[in-house]
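PROTEIN DESIGN WORKSHEET
SECTION A - STRUCTURE
LENGTH: 154
TOKENS:
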């Protein structure tokens, strides 16, 4: 208890304030760290999504086939240069009829025939164990369903 003439804070008050400040900073740091894997996954996913959407509509407008070349760490539209997924992301593929995820083969392609439909495909991005799975709609070439697992990515 303070005496009315006493100025300043007691050691106990200072330690309590420092402890609370450290607790707040610690919780904030954990929260920011947890957002990291999801943000990195979404950034890599946007590369794949935008390429797929662009090729789908380009094939429909031109009425000619296009393809998206797939690799473990990059994608490429037709004969264009490879675009890295960045963030050390790893791409995996699951086609219709396949039950297991796998790394894309050497000449793996996702076809957009120009008929207004594309091959249904599921892609999974993984960064440090965190994953983001995307199922693409054959009618629009856009992501129809998305699932994330951030458990191992912290």
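SECTION B - SEQUENCE
RESIDUE ASSIGNMENT:
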């Amino acid at each position: 208890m303070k005496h009315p003439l006493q100025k300043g804070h007691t050691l106990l008050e200072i330690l309590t304030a420092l402890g609370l400040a450290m607790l707040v900073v610690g919780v904030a740091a954990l929260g920011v760290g947890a957002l990291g894997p999801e943000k990195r996954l979404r950034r890599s996913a946007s590369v794949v999504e935008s390429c797929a959407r662009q090729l789908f509509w380009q094939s429909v407008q031109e009425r000619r086939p296009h393809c998206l070349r797939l690799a473990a760490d990059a994608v490429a539209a037709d004969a264009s240069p490879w675009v890295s997924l960045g963030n050390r992301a790893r791409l995996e593929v699951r086609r219709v009829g396949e039950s297991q995820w796998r790394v894309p083969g050497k000449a793996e392609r996702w076809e957009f025939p120009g008929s207004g439909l594309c091959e249904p495909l599921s892609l999974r991005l993984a960064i440090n164990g965190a994953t983001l799975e995307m199922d693409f709609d054959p009618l629009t070439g856009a992501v129809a369903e998305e699932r994330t697992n951030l458990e191992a990515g912290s």
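SECTION C - NOTES
Residues 63 and 114 are 5 Å apart (CA to CA).
The helical segments are 11-62.
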